[in-house]
Backbone:
């Protein structure tokens, strides 16, 4: 367990080798080096987890302190890694799913000129993410928090010469920084209140979570709400979700790793990690529940109207994160973490499958220009289908178990109610519908793509412009996925199926036991409050699965059996369609309220205030210029004029002396 | 011995002549001669005072002034020669490069 720091070292090595030596290595080396580093980190993660699980439950929580990072009076922050089942699970997900995506990326980015930069940034992302999940105090957490934000910025802007990619990167960074500021304020308040930033106490010094009891409700609400701002920004929850769909301008492996499987789940991780704080702040829990519910339904509706396959998945991610927030809000932290894990599997799978389709079509991402890909890239068809069934919650795929856990909690846990449960159920149906809408549009029907036109046209394509000239004029064939792209699909596909089997109520309790040391009541249905009354778990599960099937069926009818019906519906409900198409006008509102107004303010300042300052400075210069203009007349250049002046001066001084002598 | 005032009147006449010479003549050599005139009028005053007070310090200062005057003429003539070489003229009104 003391070797856990090695998981940080390997991604750092991957970064260092790529950043410092990458230019001298062979063309494909950066991806291989980075993938090997990830594999090593994953191996260490497995070793650490095994080590942890060998301990008795009550000892599963180890503080591995590397050194004292901030030793100032009144505040001691160590560079410490907290290893418990929750952080170990995150460690496994980040390194394991990360490794698969790295392998995939070596194939996906094979033709990219910026491979070295890409893999260096990916490695630094993993490093930051691991710091985030392993930190044993809020300050170190914030270091990882900011680090993943930066890495995300750098990777979204991978194709930085495209204005939309550069703009999306800036948008992501600004929104995330907004969250960072909220977190920082929360930390300041926490330090003032508790005098420490450690999660758990060490020796005689109590940690933050040890001091929750006896703290004022108002203070706790303020702290948790400020932390929540960070979580909402990072996890793309309403109203700070706007950056996540735009972030799809990055390469597809980035979307899979950062904007689906790991970074965006950091907010959920924070809620789960700081559950003792949140449990003591009922007001904040209410906010979390409703933010999660609104996000879950709103983003699912938006997913229905998107034409870009990656944007469908982006809104799906936002919606699924909303599920997790809802679960955390109603107290089912275990269910949130469970869904976080299965979501990492099936959403990464969906993104990678979409990436195969996009890669095959030379960068085409628009669903209306796909179609009929089932026979062209059967591996992507199979993977997307498995991922789709998993996210739709069809048994026995993983999403069925994790999502039903949340729906049940929304209905019947202590803070849940029927409305929340129905919303969760409805969103489940919507999820199935929009994912299979994308599935049917992309993989069934007639082929609508034009490889000649698509070449390098759409964002997210794995070629740089210079590279496109190397293509043979006749290279308009489908890009078949290479082995290193198919392998991660296979592994993730298996995980997306079996991942949910870790917790089947009444059958397996693996996951529940695993998380038992972390949460006081990992699963809502296991908590005494939740258990009283309410339908049994399986009733809910069957209804949810039927809803999912209905969603899939509807998608089949609308997009395969009778496509005319879909266009008819879109025109009949043109207003609703436009509302969804414009993303509830939230982006337009932000654009108006912040971007445009700040531009207007800046222009006003530059025209008014700046002009004033300019004139002041110019005025001072003008005064001296005019004065010297007048004075230069004295400088005649004639020696006798100077001599006369000397004479005049002498006479004046002499007269002064004499006159003064006379007066006295 | 003539009254002391006579020496000062002569000294003042010499000094004024020198000042007018510097102010109205354009030839630098004449101007130098005028400056010498002013310096020597000062010498005359010093020597007169020394004689009047029976001291030696005034006489000594007269010698100092002669030395300084000689050095000043050397430097001045060198400047004039240099100006003549570059401008082929010694008229001081032609030397007005620093006119503002």
Residues:
């Amino acid at each position: 367990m003391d070797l856990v720091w090695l998981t940080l070292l390997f991604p750092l090595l991957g970064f260092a080798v790529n950043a410092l030596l990458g230019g001298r290595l062979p063309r494909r080396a950066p991806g291989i080096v980075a993938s090997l580093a990830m594999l090593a980190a994953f191996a260490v993660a497995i070793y650490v987890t095994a080590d942890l699980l060998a301990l008795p439950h009550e000892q599963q929580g180890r503080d591995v302190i590397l050194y004292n990072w901030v030793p100032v009076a009144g505040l001691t922050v160590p560079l410490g890694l907290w290893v418990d089942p929750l952080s170990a699970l995150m460690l496994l997900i980040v390194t394991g799913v990360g490794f698969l995506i790295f392998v995939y990326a070596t194939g996906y980015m094979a033709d990219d000129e910026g491979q070295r930069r890409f893999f260096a940034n990916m490695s630094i992302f993993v490093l930051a993410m691991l710091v985030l999940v392993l930190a044993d105090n809020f300050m170190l957490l914030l270091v990882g928090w900011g680090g993943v934000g930066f890495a995300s910025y750098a990777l979204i802007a991978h194709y930085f010469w495209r204005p939309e990619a550069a703009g999306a990167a800036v948008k992501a960074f600004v929104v995330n920084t907004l969250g960072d500021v909220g977190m920082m304020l929360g930390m300041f308040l926490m330090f003032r209140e508790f005098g420490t930033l450690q999660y758990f106490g060490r020796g005689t010094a109590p940690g933050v979570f040890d001091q929750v009891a006896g703290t004022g409700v108002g203070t706790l609400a303020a702290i948790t709400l400020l932390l929540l701002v960070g979580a909402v920004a990072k996890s793309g929850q309403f109203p700070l979700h706007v950056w996540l769909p735009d972030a799809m301008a990055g390469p597809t492996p980035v979307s899979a790793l950062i904007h689906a499987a790991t970074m965006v789940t950091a907010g959920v991780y924070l809620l789960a990690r700081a559950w003792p704080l949140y449990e003591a702040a009922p007001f904040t829990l209410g906010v979390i529940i409703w933010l999660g519910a609104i996000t879950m339904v709103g983003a699912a509706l938006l997913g229905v109207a998107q034409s870009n396959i990656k944007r469908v998945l982006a809104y799906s991610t936002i919606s699924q994160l909303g599920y997790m927030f809802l679960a955390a809000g109603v107290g089912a932290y275990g269910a949130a973490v469970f869904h976080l894990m299965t979501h990492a599997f099936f959403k990464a799978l969906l993104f990678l499958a979409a990436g195969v389709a996009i890669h095959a079509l030379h960068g085409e991402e628009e669903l209306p220009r796909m179609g009929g890909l089932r026979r062209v890239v059967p591996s992507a068809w199979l993977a997307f289908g498995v991922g789709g069934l998993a996210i739709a919650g069809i048994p026995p795929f993983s999403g069925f178990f994790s999502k039903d856990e949340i729906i049940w909690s929304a209905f019947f846990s202590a803070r849940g109610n029927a409305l929340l449960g129905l919303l969760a159920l409805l969103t489940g149906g919507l999820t199935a519908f929009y994912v299979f809408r994308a599935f049917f549009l992309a993989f069934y029907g007639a082929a609508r793509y034009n490889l000649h036109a698509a070449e390098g046209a759409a964002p997210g394509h794995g070629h740089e412009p210079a590279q496109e000239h190397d293509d043979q004029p006749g290279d308009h064939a489908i890009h078949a996925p290479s082995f290193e792209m198919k392998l991660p699909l296979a592994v993730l596909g298996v995980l997306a199926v079996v991942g949910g089997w870790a917790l089947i109520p009444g059958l397996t309790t693996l996951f529940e036991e695993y998380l038992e040391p972390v949460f006081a009541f990992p699963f809502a249905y296991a908590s005494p409050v939740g258990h009283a009354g309410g339908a049994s778990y399986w009733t809910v599960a069957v209804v949810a699965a039927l809803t999912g099937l209905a969603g899939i069926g509807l998608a089949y009818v609308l997009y395969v059996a009778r496509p005319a019906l879909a266009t008819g519906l879109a025109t009949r409900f043109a207003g609703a369609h436009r509302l969804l198409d414009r993303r509830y006008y939230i982006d337009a509102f932000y654009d108006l309220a912040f971007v445009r107004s700040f531009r207007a303010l800046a222009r006003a300042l530059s025209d008014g205030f700046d002009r004033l300052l300019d004139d002041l400075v110019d005025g001072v210069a003008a005064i001296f210029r005019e004065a010297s203009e007048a004075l230069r007349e004295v400088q005649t250049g004639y020696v006798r004029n100077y001599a006369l002046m000397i004479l005049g001066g002498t006479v004046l001084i002499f007269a002064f002396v004499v006159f003064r002598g006379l007066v006295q | 011995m003539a009254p002391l005032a006579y020496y000062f009147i002569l000294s003042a006449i010499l000094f004024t002549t020198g000042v007018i010479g510097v102010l109205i003549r354009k030839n630098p050599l004449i101007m130098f001669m005028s400056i010498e005139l002013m310096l020597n009028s000062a010498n005359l005053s010093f020597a007169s005072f020394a004689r009047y007070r029976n001291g030696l310090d005034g006489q000594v200062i007269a010698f100092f002034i002669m030395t300084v005057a000689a050095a000043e003429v050397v430097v001045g003539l060198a400047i004039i020669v240099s100006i003549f070489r570059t401008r082929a003229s010694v008229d001081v009104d032609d030397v007005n490069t620093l006119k503002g």
